[in-house]
TrEMBL record:
InterPro entries: Trp_synth_beta/beta-like (IPR023026), TrpB-like_PALP_sf (IPR036052). Keywords: Pyridoxal phosphate. Coiled coil: none annotated. It comes from Dactylosporangium cerinum. This is Tryptophan synthase beta chain.
Length: 106
């Protein structure tokens, strides 16, 4: 079983703009441009840290950073220029996309 199924972690959805905003914040704070993939986790960490700041709760927040965003600078450029759009897919579009995934033996 995976960590999610065991209840060890929660899954949250973040928009592209939230993720790139967290990536830019991380880059300005830490001096490392993260690849887009880990910015989803960074966005959740920022949200949790701000919640703890508001409530006064002390908490250790741990995440992992894999890769750098040097090859993704055009995407960061689109975000910083205000050209990035968040898209939401309907349940039907998601189901159609999942139906096209190849079957992988368990």
């Amino acid at each position: 079983m995976a960590a999610y199924e065991l209840g060890l972690i929660e899954a949250v959805a973040k928009t592209q703009r939230e993720c790139f905003e967290a990536g830019v914040r991380f880059a300005r704070t830490e001096g490392v441009i993260p690849a887009p993939e880990p910015t989803h986790a960074l966005a959740a960490c920022v949200e949790e840290a701000l919640r703890c700041k508001r409530t006064g709760e002390e908490k250790v927040i741990l995440t992992a950073l894999c890769g750098h965003g040097h090859l993704d600078l055009p995407a960061y450029g689109r975000f910083l220029a205000g050209e990035m759009e968040d898209r939401e897919l309907s349940d039907e579009a998601l189901a159609a996309a999942v139906a096209q995934l190849p079957k992988v033996p368990a």
